[in-house]
Amino acid sequence: MGPAEAQTARVMQSAIWGTADKFLRGVVEEEDYGDYIIPFTVLRRLESW
User: Fold this and answer.
1) 26 pLDDT band (50/70/90 cuts)?
2) N or C end of the chain, less CB within 10 A?
3) Helices (DSSP H) in the chain: which residue ranges?
């Protein structure tokens, strides 16, 4: 992975976890975020494919 791909990955990662913080905070425990975010991330990637 080159520097451009690494930067893109960091930006996407930040956006995903920022969304989790915004919409799941107070509703879901932080340690359970992955149970919600990972499936939606996979669905989004499949949709974009």
Assistant:
1) confident
2) C
3) 3-24, 33-48
